[in-house]
Fold this sequence. Notes:
It is built from six helices and 15 strands. By secondary structure, it is α/β, with parallel strands linked by helices.
Amino acid sequence: MYRIKPLKQGEIMAPMGVLQILGDMSTLIVAPIYVWLIEGENRKIIVDAGIEEPVDGFVHGFPVSGGGEEGLRKALESENMKPEDIDTLILTHLHFDHVATTNLFHNARVYVQKKEWESAFNPPMHYRATYDANLFQCLEGMDLCLVDGDACVADGIELILLPGHTKGLQGVAVQTEGGKYLIAGDHFYSFLNLNPPKEPVKIEDLQGNKIEIQPSPIPFLPPGLHVDLSEWFDSCFKALSVTSRKNILPGHEPSLVGKQFP
Ligand SMILES: [Zn+2]
């Protein structure tokens, strides 16, 4: 059995239109960048490797604080760990805010979907700015495992292919004493995407800013960024076949800071 802890490596500011499709591009929210620690069965697994340190406050045009090697070391030190202690690194996908400290995990076997790997070197035109090969090319010299579809990493740790946000995004299903959890990566940025409101609600970002959200009649609310919206919806239902909604953990959900599962 395992336990999951989202550790904050940095913070990014993005328009609501990134968080929800056709959302307001002038309202900004502050969201966490997580590296996810999975511990148990003598394993130390990290899911995703965070964002770069900002230059003049920005990374790829987004205002960022924290991040980089320092952000990663601080996050791991809170658990008395160093990057070298990690035996397995799972990258949900290769977007710039998920891979920036990959090269520090010297002792880890690294899992990436083959489709994601291929697409990251030749992304669709509208997605070129979301990938930075300088950050993940180092994987060629590491213990890289390219996975083709759903796969088992260890007893109780499964990779679940969830295309839509990117061509080869994978979630990580983790068996815990509280049942099976699914780390969804950017398939769902926040609970807003997973549980669209049925009446107007206010959500809160990391800085306590409150943003009003209008009700949505659809079962899932897509983020603003995707390569294939039909595939994205199919992957939502696939995620629900893995575990129930209450055990799905969105990739940038502000309310998960400091939490652990179960
Ligand atoms: Zn992404």
